[in-house]
Amino acid sequence: MSNVGFYSGTFDPVTCGHLDVIARTLTMVDELVIGLGVHPAKSPLFPPVERIAMLEAECAPLAEKHGVPIRVVTFDGLVVDAARAEGANIIVRGLRDGTDFDYEMQMAGMNGEMAPDLQTVFLSASPAVRHIAATLVRQIAAMGGDVRPFVTPDVAARLKARFAKA
User: Is the pTM of the predicted complex or chain greater than 0.85?
Assistant: First the structure.
């Protein structure tokens, strides 16, 4: 049996924290599916097509380095349904702090009730990226700040271009 991981989020934008979780997940799975949540009630900075392009570009070197295929898909329902649809048996969640832990434990419990065949794996963020949050990255970029410590050069350029238009 192969292990297929499902890592979901809005990735608006993809940060060095996300990439840390992805790289570490690739050491534990045979395939990784990144589920890009698309919800009508949310107004993301980047449209789904651009977030997919960022994820694919940033993840390609990681997939090659680890020899593990990565697919990026969109979903608009429950994570457990999306994970099952993609053949995943592991849901991967990154944890930055205790607040994340409390929320993610509740979510894992609910997901476990709905989909006992899926296991949730928590990865604590590496110390170097533990403080990074996409929401804060967007706020810094919107105010003209330097986001280069938190995202890759390509993502930083996309953020700069996006806010130059505003």
Answer: yes
